[in-house]
Specification:
about 290 residues, Beta-galactosidase, Chain A, domain 5, 3-stranded antiparallel beta sheet, 18 strands
């Protein structure tokens, strides 16, 4: 079955474009756009196939990359190499990493590993906005550090179907003290406001939640305003979470999914289908 939308364009950047909101310094994955690579569909979201590494002390994001193609992707295959060299710290000063600023993150990691339901903010937004007094505020800041290896994400694009197959290779990651591997797929939170999955669950806006585990074979984020959505096929025995969050005037604005993988995983793949609601639903029976 062909996709009748034919309006999506695919972009890949060596820098962290599109530069929006809290995730401005983080390297993005494949960017989906209808407007010359701008953030019209992604807003502050990180795009498709973005890795995050959770170590004992910090979450590592990518602040540096190399790409097979820069800008508009006109071929059916491309890749991006994510160097995992960016961490976030909550501290009182922003000019350099402060001693013991890792403590808050360590406590969070320990609670999360024990299965306690502490807020799991999306990607880089952990502990944002914390206060210690009326005059002192903890500032969430990103810092470039020695990288923990690199991850290569390969994108295969079927333009006839608007189907993106994502494959990640974790072979070159530092495994010492690695707790979990995450893979994120996000688009814009103001745009994609409705959620459906194979269990019959239907949610909208705030009811979607920030991060809730998905127990389904597939799941969809959809925009009634523009009649477009994206459907993710969930590999068997894989843990995945859905989420949507909007804070401020576009500073945090995303809807999407994140896979949680074991630290010994070497390769992982999944697929994303884009299109109108009728197309996404008709594809399920094929």
């Amino acid at each position: 079955m062909k996709n009748s939308s034919n309006i999506f364009q695919y972009y890949l950047y060596q820098d962290s474009r599109p530069h929006r909101g809290k995730t401005k310094p983080i390297q993005k994955g494949l960017v989906i756009s209808r407007d010359s690579g701008k953030a019209d569909l992604s807003e502050e979201g990180v795009g498709f196939g973005v890795p995050i590494l959770q170590y004992r002390r910090d979450f590592y994001f990518s602040g540096k990359s190399t790409v097979s193609n820069q800008g508009l992707i006109q071929c059916d295959w491309c890749w991006k190499k994510f160097y995992m060299n960016l961490i976030e710290r909550e501290q009182f000063m922003a000019n350099k990493i402060q001693l013991f600023s890792w403590v808050i993150q360590r406590i969070y990691n320990l609670l999360y590993l024990k299965g306690l339901r502490v807020p799991f903010g999306p990607l880089s937004r952990l502990f944002s906005g914390g206060k210690t007094s009326k005059d002192q505020k903890l500032i969430p800041m990103f810092f470039h550090v020695r990288d923990r290896g690199f991850i290569t994400t390969t994108y295969n694009i079927n333009r006839e179907l608007d189907l993106v197959t994502v494959e990640l290779d974790f072979s070159n990651v530092v495994r010492e003290n690695l707790q979990n591997i995450f893979v994120s797929t996000e688009l814009g939170g103001n745009i994609f406001t409705h959620y459906f999955d194979s269990t019959g669950l239907k949610l909208s806006r705030k009811d979607i939640g920030e991060w809730n585990e998905v127990k389904a074979d597939w799941a969809i984020f959809y925009s009634p305003d523009i009649d477009l959505g994206f459907k993710i096929d969930i590999p068997a025995s894989t843990q995945i979470f859905r989420g949507r969050e909007i804070i401020g005037d576009g500073d945090i604005c995303w809807s999407g999914f994140i896979f949680k993988l074991k630290p010994n995983v070497s390769k992982f793949g999944y697929s994303i289908l884009l299109g109108r609601r009728a197309y996404l639903y008709n594809s399920i029976s094929e």
